[in-house]
From TrEMBL, chain A:
GO terms for biological process: cilium movement. This is Transmembrane channel-like protein. The chain crosses the membrane at residues 151-173, 221-240, 314-336, 361-381, 393-417, 491-513, 536-559, 608-625. It is found in: Membrane.
Automatic annotation (TrEMBL), chain B:
CDD domains: EFh. This is Calcium and integrin-binding protein 1 isoform X1. The gene is cib1. The keyword Zinc does not apply. It holds the Pfam family EF-hand_7. InterPro entries: CIBP (IPR051433), EF-hand-dom_pair (IPR011992), EF_Hand_1_Ca_BS (IPR018247), EF_hand_dom (IPR002048). GO terms for molecular function: calcium ion binding; magnesium ion binding. SMART domains: EFh (SM00054).
């Protein structure tokens, strides 16, 4: 479809809209001193033009255009009927040709097909009703948390499917009878060790043999490419959704937004249906409006130097405290970990000692405890700081929590990649089990946290200390917990390819748990608004800290670490990436595919190639940035122009009124012909849209 | 229930699908819900209207402070009593549906907020809007000074051509800068 048609169409829609807003009710028409016939003529002309525009559009675009006309159903049907009749009369002019008929039939078929696909997709979406209920009771901001959860669940289901199909199933078929030296005792469900050690759940359960079939299935390559494909898929979809959301929520949101205009004109949540929730929302909106007003007044008041210094030292103190806490917990974790490995190492995994096995759970419990308690201290600190802007408050809270979680994961990864490979025989499986334990204990703590944090807090707040009140649902903390869990899942994907199973089950249960907990124990957060922007921030966090971190970890493992000698698909190689080298060398000898080898050797393994790509990307970025600057300039100019037009309008209005006054004065002396309508509706002029 | 009489014709259904943003399932559900509001003998003809107070008993609209405005905006009744025919009802659901365009949504939002139907949001409309949004209790209701301050803030921000009122395109401009609007301007049966 050509762009000119689209432009014409939107212009057309604008025109129709203007008509609608010009004459919201026919009763005001008299004020314009136009006769009924003239109006009808005008309307008829408009409709005629619209119809002739619509006739020329392709079918699908025409349906969309008619659908998007801001008119009543009857008017749309009328327009459609006229378009159809014009179409038909045109068709009878032409000879009915088999070709056009065929074309019509296929386009009709495709339209029907796409409509039914859309319906099917709507049906497949899980939790449609549950999400509707949540939105109806708690509003869009809480709903965004659940959407985020659902989105993560999709990621994990995809990764589960591809890992299962391309890695686990071939391995199971290839060597189905693993002799289990250890019996299943139940504790393995928590620790992941023992019975699970040699299963396909972990890296150690795979071997790098080429499965003999036609064509042969190379397990090493399968393992490498499946993990790589999943990570690339995650990266691409994250970048895509992040960029989309960024464009929608940040780039377009420019200009003054400090006041309450957006909040007022676009904040009513029409999806809310619960009586109590609506009352709550109203109260919160009232309080928020009052707050913004007082904030604005405060902003005008200048801050004296002494209070400024006081505040600054308070912030400094708070930051030192938080960073200190994060560092302290990292040190504690590192020492605990190295101490524990000394304790556990002499008796490797085959031992039947339950106590040793259970002691491996100490570390994940400590990590989860830190994750539970330290953020609470952070929020206490945050309360003392008194930021004037509630959004700064939220962002600083998020920053501190992220700092804590990154440093904990960082210290764990440092230990796994630095100390573990040299000391433990099947170290990949060991890391996989550690991640497994962390994921599981985190899940248990999430369950307990919902119970104690929300349920007990609710009872205390309503029964014992009424001044505390019902707890608010803290979206930021909950989303950060989800991001943390997902980071673990991404880190573990190389060491434990079936870890997504646990993650899927976990997210599934968390969804229902949070839903129940929300409706029983919590009230929706008081400070809402900008939910979509917060969503972008969460996506950015998920991408930049969590995904990039996990990706670099996996990449480092694959490129530079020596895989363990006794187990795993890459045994006997210097690095896992060598599998690719060997494969390319094999490819080299297949006639007709030398180019692939050449490409690999001279382009992909060449630093200069990546250097050039980086350079090109940088140049492109610079150009795009310049274009945005130019657009900004243009917007500023257009804005000024609009203000000038407005001034012109008021000037003309005043002139018109003064002329009318003169006429009225003249009419008082002359015959009564002007007396019938002299009232002028001032608001009429305002309905003229700004032609931009 | 007389099943044959209350079923939608197939060609009618496809016409509804073509002219609204609703899917087949949504239209059928809307038809079912609409029929529940009608008396038994009114179900036969499609042109029957449901009075406004009955529409407002729908759980999706019951607690909405704008329910009467919504009925008035979507009603095509000659009497201007806010009663809805089935087609008006579909129009309503279509505008509030997931797939409706931002343009349609903001257009109808504007008309819902335009309490005196004069085609612009002036300070009277804005005051009514604020009163609808905030609760009735004394501590959330704005004082007259706060109200004046708030309205002048809004006009300062959104009244681009400085004529003292917010017109449709200015309103759409504000809406386009608040990304939460599309997801919150939604009613699903």
């Amino acid at each position: 479809m050509c762009s000119a048609a689209i432009m014409r169409r939107t212009y057309k829609k604008k025109r129709m809209m203007r008509r609608m807003s010009l004459f919201p009710h026919r009763s005001t028409l008299g004020n314009l001193e136009l006769t009924r016939d003239e109006i009808q003529q005008e309307v008829e002309n408009d409709t005629h033009e619209l119809v002739s525009e619509l006739v020329n559009l392709p079918t699908r675009a025409r349906i969309q255009a008619i659908r998007a006309l801001p008119m009543t159903f009857h008017e749309r049907r009328y327009v459609r009927g006229r378009v159809m009749s014009v179409k038909h009369s045109k068709k009878t002019d032409m000879l009915p040709m088999c070709c056009t008929d065929c074309h019509q039939q296929t386009s009709l078929f495709f339209r029907r097909f796409s409509a039914s696909v859309a319906t099917a997709r709507k049906r497949l979406v899980i939790w449609q009703d549950a999400l509707k209920e949540i939105g109806g009771r708690f509003g869009t901001s809480v709903l965004s948390y659940f959407r985020f959860l659902k989105w993560l669940l999709m990621f994990n289901i995809i990764s589960l499917l591809i890992n299962f199909c391309f890695i686990a199933i071939p391995q199971i078929i290839h060597s189905p009878n693993i002799t289990h030296t250890v019996n299943f005792r139940g504790l393995e469900l928590l620790t992941g060790a023992g019975y699970f050690n040699q299963t396909v759940f972990f890296y150690g359960g795979y071997n790098g043999e080429v499965i003999v079939s036609q064509p042969p299935y190379n397990m090493q390559l399968a393992y490498f490419f499946t993990i790589a494909a999943y990570l690339v898929l995650c990266g691409v979809s994250l970048i895509y959704s992040m960029a989309r959301s960024f464009q929608k929520n940040f780039v377009l949101v420019s200009g003054p937004t400090y006041g309450g205009a957006w909040r007022l004109l676009s904040s009513w949540d029409f999806s809310m249906v619960n009586e109590k929730a609506i009352q709550n929302l109203k109260n919160n909106l009232g309080i928020q409006l009052k707050e913004t007003l007082s904030e604005r007044l405060q902003r005008k008041a200048t801050v004296s130097t002494s209070t400024f210094v006081k505040r600054l030292s308070l912030y400094l103190l708070a930051w030192t405290l938080c960073v200190g806490l994060a560092v302290a917990s990292c040190t504690a974790i590192y020492f605990l970990q190295s101490h524990q490995s000394k304790l556990v190492l002499p008796v490797p995994w085959s031992s039947d000692d339950l106590g040793t096995e259970a002691s491996t759970l100490i570390l994940p419990v400590v990590v989860s405890l830190i994750n539970l308690i330290v953020p609470l201290i952070f929020s206490l600190v945050n309360k003392m700081e008194h930021y004037t802007n509630p959004r700064t408050n939220i962002y600083i809270g998020i920053m501190r929590n992220v700092l804590l979680k990154i440093s904990i994961l960082g210290i764990l990864c440092y230990y796994w990649l630095k100390d573990v490979p040299s000391t433990i025989p099947c170290w990949e499986s060991f890391v996989g089990q550690s991640v497994y334990r962390l994921v599981l204990v985190d899940f248990i703590f999430c369950l307990l946290g919902s119970f104690f944090g929300e349920f007990l807090r609710n009872i205390i707040g309503t029964k014992c200390i009424p001044s505390l009140g019902v707890p608010e649902f803290d979206i930021a903390t909950n989303v950060l917990n989800l991001i943390y869990a997902q980071t673990l899942a991404w880190i573990g994907i190389y060491f434990s390819p079936l870890l997504p199973i646990i993650q899927v089950i976990k997210l599934f249960i968390i969804f229902y748990l949070k839903k129940v907990s929300l409706s029983m124990n919590c009230q929706p957060p008081k400070h809402t608004g900008r939910a979509a922007q917060m969503q972008t921030v969460y996506l950015a966090l998920l991408f930049f800290t969590s995904f990039i971190g996990a990706l670099s970890l996996v990449a480092y493992t694959v490129w530079s670490l020596k895989p363990s000698e006794q187990c795993g698909p890459f045994q006997g190689l210097d690095t896992p990436f060598q599998a690719i080298h060997q494969w390319m060398n094999a490819v080299h000898y297949i006639p007709g595919s030398e180019w692939a080898w050449w490409f690999f050797e001279h382009v992909l393994r060449n630093e200069l190639f990546f250097y050039l790509i980086t350079l090109i990307v940088l140049i492109l970025t610079y150009f795009l940035w310049q274009i945005t600057q130019g657009r900004k300039q243009l917007i500023r100019t257009l804005r000024e122009q609009i203000v000038n037009e407005g001034k012109d309008k008021t000037f003309l209005l005043n002139r018109l009124q003064s002329i009318q006054k003169q006429r009225r004065a003249a009419a008082a002396f002359g015959p009564q012909e002007f007396s019938e309508r002299t009232y002028f509706n001032q608001n009429w002029m305002n309905t003229l849209p700004l032609e931009m | 229930m007389g099943t044959a009489a209350t079923k939608l014709q197939k060609d009618q259904l496809s016409e509804y699908q073509e002219l609204t943003f609703l899917t087949k399932q949504e239209i059928l559900l809307a038809h079912k819900r609409f029929n529940e509001l009608l008396d038994r003998n009114e179900r036969q003809q499609l042109s029957s209207r449901v009075p406004m107070n009955k529409i407002c008993t729908l759980p999706e609209l019951k607690s909405n402070p704008f329910r009467k405005r919504i009925c008035h905006v979507f009603s095509t009744s000659e009497l201007k009593d806010g009663s809805l025919s089935f087609e008006d009802f579909l129009d309503l659901l279509s505008a509030f549906s997931d797939s409706a365009t931002l343009e349609i949504k903001s257009h109808y939002a504007f008309r819902i907020f335009d309490f005196d139907d004069d085609g612009t949001l002036d300070s009277g409309d804005l005051e009514k809007l604020v009163n609808c949004l905030t609760g009735e209790s004394a501590d959330t209701r704005l004082s007259p000074e706060e109200m004046i301050q708030l309205i002048s803030n809004i006009l300062e921000e959104s009244d681009i051509d400085k004529d003292g009122t917010v017109n449709l395109s200015e309103f759409q401009h504000v809406i386009s800068r608040s990304p939460d609007f599309v997801s919150s301007f939604k009613i699903v049966l």
